[in-house]
Design brief:
CATH topology of the largest domain: Aminopeptidase
Number of helices: 7
Largest sheet: 8 strands, mixed
Radius of gyration: 24 Å
Number of strands: 16
GO molecular function: aminoacylase activity; metal ion binding; N-acetyldiaminopimelate deacetylase activity
Enzyme class: hydrolase
Structural class: alpha/beta
Low-confidence stretches: 347-353
Order of helices and strands: EEEHEHEEEEEHEEEHEEHEHEH
CATH architecture of the largest domain: 3-Layer(aba) Sandwich
Pfam families: M20_dimer, Peptidase_M20
Shape: elongated
Keywords: Hydrolase, Manganese, Metal-binding
InterPro entries: Amidohydrolase, Bact_exopeptidase_dim_dom, Peptidase_M20, Peptidase_M20_dimer
Helix content: 25-40%
Strand order of the largest sheet: 1-2-4-3-5-16-6-15
């Protein structure tokens, strides 16, 4: 085991008794700055911090998988790298640092999963190609010239400039991006002005742009800058743009995704394996897939009977813990499918359903 990988990451390596491929399995373990409002015995004991995205379940699942693999290492061919990753929730994320610190060295294939309270227990889902969006952010600071509210002709009203910019930015998606492509532009904050009779000299707004295609991602940044700078220039205002590239598009490799679906259909039944539509959320597992073939999948963990239906990042988020058995069994089956060319060790192992 190796600790402090890329900062706070932890790597465990299980060497099989027979030469073979090297597979990496990844789980993230970071929490969120949210007050836990669940009324359960296992709610967070740390004020203002909780697991509101299922990362504790990811970690527990991978630890269970590690125990079974370790107990059967003599029957295992190849090597399993268990990646326990920090900081998925906060850019730049922990994946980049762990990769730079060597967590993927010698790895042939990588898999990861995410529990989903919005998907019923017993269902899993994935898709080949782009499954999760690139998540970029921006901050725009507009500098005008303030003055008296009764004498606007002596000013450059930063609020007017900013609202013109924001309105025009919305046309990028509706009129500039191919309707068959996907992009989302959201302005999340706006700050300007100090009093009702003073024309604001500055205005600042921030937001995010989400895309599912590399070319659209490049186009949106270029057009964003063109619109912002052009309008500010035409209205005699100065502008500072901070545009930050976030997580890349999560693109599942076709062969590995199909392989996962075959394994999952064998374990769960074809009716429980879904091809899901892409979502506009971001995930830094995308970085692993830029370096090594692999796939990412969702494991259903929702259950109305126990109240596990709240969305991720909600103060009452919870999941059905039986989902960890489903996800763990699939990870073991994936290992088994690569071990001894599919003639692996699971016939020696009893996994409770």
């Amino acid at each position: 085991m190796k600790t402090d990988v890329g900062g706070r990451g932890v790597i465990g390596v299980i060497e099989g008794g027979i030469p073979g491929k090297t597979m990496a399995l990844r789980a993230d373990f970071d929490a969120l700055p949210i007050q836990d409002e669940k009324r359960v015995s296992y709610k967070s004991k740390v004020p203002g911090v909780m697991h509101a995205c299922g990362h504790d379940g990811h970690t527990a699942t991978l630890l269970g998988v590690a125990k079974i693999l370790s107990d059967n290492r003599d029957q295992l061919s190849g090597k399993i790298v268990l990646i326990h990753q920090h900081a998925e929730e906060k850019e730049p994320g922990g994946a980049i640092a762990m990769i730079e610190d060597g967590c993927l060295e010698g790895v042939d294939v990588v898999f990861g999963t995410h529990l989903s309270s919005q998907m019923p227990l017993g269902i899993v889902g994935t898709k080949a190609g782009a499954m999760m969006a690139a998540a970029d952010t921006f901050e725009v600071k507009i500098q005008g010239r303030g003055g008296h509210g009764g004498m606007p002709h002596h000013t450059v009203d930063a609020i007017i400039v900013a609202t013109q910019v924001i309105n025009q930015l919305q046309l990028l998606v509706s009129r500039k991006v191919d309707p068959l492509q996907s992009a989302v532009l959201t302005v999340g904050t706006f700050h300007a002005g100090q009093a009702d009779n003073i024309i604001a000299d500055t205005a600042t707004f921030t937001g995010t742009i989400r895309t599912l295609d590399p070319e659209v991602r490049e186009y949106m940044e270029k057009e964003f800058r063109r619109v912002v700078e052009g309008i500010c220039q035409s209205l005699h205002a100065e502008v500072n743009i901070q545009y930050k590239r976030g997580y890349p598009i999560l693109i599942n490799h076709v062969a590995e995704t199909r392989h996962f679906m075959t394994v999952a259909e064998h374990d769960l039944g074809k009716e429980r394996v879904m091809e899901v539509p892409p979502i506009m959320g971001g995930e830094d597992f995308a970085y692993y897939l830029e370096h090594v073939p692999g796939a990412f999948f969702f494991t259903g963990a929702g259950n109305e009977e126990i109240g596990a239906t709240y969305p991720h990042h909600h103060p009452q988020f919870d999941f059905d813990e039986r989902a960890m058995l489903v996800g763990g069994k699939l990870l073991l089956s994936l290992v088994n499918s690569y071990s001894r060319d599919g003639k692996g060790f699971l016939h020696h192992v009893e996994v409770k359903k």
